[in-house]
């Protein structure tokens, strides 16, 4: 039995996507995360969540540009890894920031806009993760596509969450915002082209 | 370990120009610090390194009355994890970026409502003051805290020498503005130069000090060399670093952070668990090195000493 080409790529990607979590865990264990390791865990996992969200969103444009289908075959795994890192990120918050004090957590979510936005993004990720299987895809049909469009909103909320958290230096979140704009802009352009094409075809 | 050896300077040399004017020694000191920084990355687990980095030693007395006996934050955390936006907004960047700052010669301009305005050399400023150690808690507005053994002298003693007039109601401090050496100033993250201020009675309070060192040695550049303010009952950003100007005014100064975000950072910035930052709670803090968070104390635990400065004031309005 031998792996097909795409299966091999998927296997490699699966391992590669685990590297950030492994390195983070290793450095934490060996006290290499600086003076405030708990803050570092939250921040690193948050950034990786956002990076994976953007990587997921990159796959469709990549297919368009390369005229190949493999990017779409990697999309689900990247999306699930976004969810994985989002869960780690949430866990570091619940544990090291709040120590599972649910009353405090509720207050925090209601009071701090950037936390409200973060938790909204995480909640919206849940149905996407649950419906990511082939059978769910089949069962939902067209509705699957509609549901999974919420990834655009989720990524936007992720960027907003970052922007809102920062004290004064907006450079880093703005870089993520710019990348997101390009990725979403690609889709808007495509949509316009398609519309113009279908209008022209009808005339 | 060789590089941890204190640099051989006699304690009495703190105000001696030779320590600072001697380029070669300065370079040695700097590179010694750099090596210590690198070695601490390699051996991060052995956090017994409490003795500084081999910068020039200071001659000082311990002042038990004002010092806490809580466990001190290790030297490498104090000097490698801090905010000094002039050297970048990442908390690890000041330790790297500040190495190129030249702190000699250094002078401080004194102006405004005083009988003795003028530009004083750092040596003139420091000469008459005996140095003392003050082990203070430092609470950052970002909800982390440290315990730092500062070396300095009461700000009040310095202020008296300039003879403020009766119109002097506030003191305003300004940080050096030198984008060539302070790369963070090349971007307008804040409205440079950094400015902070105190009410006169806050400035004259015995807890308020001018610090020139920590852990028995001169201040590393990233911690505000050669001279910085330390006001332990206020959030860390009030303790302005690398001071080049002291101005006495009748009007309340506008701090750099207040200018940037007036609804988030007020003039007083007293540590207060009951008054939240608009975007986060200030009820608790993480003492660096600890797992569980501590309850933040009113006035950072210095209420007995300073609460009387604010009687009758609504602290949630005067945040
Ligand atoms: C899809 C969801 C999310 C994304 C993409 C995301 C992303 C991020 C990013 C990029 C950062 C900044 C990291 C840095 O400073 O380098 C961050 C910080 C943070 N996030 Fe999230 N986040 C998400 C969900 C959440 C949730 C659900 C919570 C908690 C309920 C949360 C709490 C935090 C906290 C506490 C910080 C750190 C704040 C600090 O260090 O002061 N995030 N997040």
Compact overview of the structure:
The complex is a heterodimer of chains A (203) and B (319). Chain A is mainly α and 203 residues long.
Kindly list the characteristics that best describe this protein.
heterodimer, A: 203 residues, mainly alpha, 85% helix, 0% strand, globular, B: 319 residues, alpha+beta, Sulfite Oxidase, Chain A, domain 2, 8-stranded mixed β-sheet, 9 helices, disordered N terminus, binds protoporphyrin IX containing FE
Blueprint (SSEs and pairs):
The complex is a heterodimer of chains A (203) and B (319).
Chain A: H1 5-29, H2 37-66, H3 70-97, H4 102-111, H5 113-130, H6 134-140, H7 142-148, H8 150-165, H9 171-202
Chain B: H1 17-21, H2 23-42, E1 61-62, H3 75-80, H4 93-97, E2 107-112, E3 118-121, H5 122-126, E4 132-139, E5 144-154, H6 155-162, E6 170-175, E7 195-199, H7 200-203, E8 209-214, E9 217-218, E10 228-230, E11 243-249, H8 256-260, E12 284-287, E13 294-295, H9 303-306
Parallel strand pairs in B: 1-4, 2-11, 5-12
Antiparallel strand pairs in B: 2-3, 4-5, 5-8, 6-7, 6-11, 8-9, 8-10, 12-13
Protoporphyrin IX containing FE binds next to helix 2, helix 3, helix 5 and helix 8 of chain A.
What is the CATH topology classification name of chain B?
Answer: Sulfite Oxidase, Chain A, domain 2
In what range is the share of β-strand residues of chain A? under 5%
Q: For the record, what CATH class of chain B applies?
A: Alpha Beta
Give the DSSP E fraction of chain B (strand runs of 2 or more residues).
15-25%
Percent helix of chain A = over 70%
Radius of gyration of chain B, taken over Cα atoms and rounded to an integer in Å:
19 Å
Q: Ranges of chain B with pLDDT <50 over ≥5 residues?
A: 1-49
Report the biggest beta sheet of chain B as strand number plus sense, adding barrel if it closes: 8 strands, mixed
Number of strands of chain A: 0
Tally the helices of chain A.
Answer: 9
Helix/strand order of chain A: HHHHHHHHH
Shape of chain B: globular
Specify the number of helices of chain B.
9
Distance between the termini of chain B: 47 Å
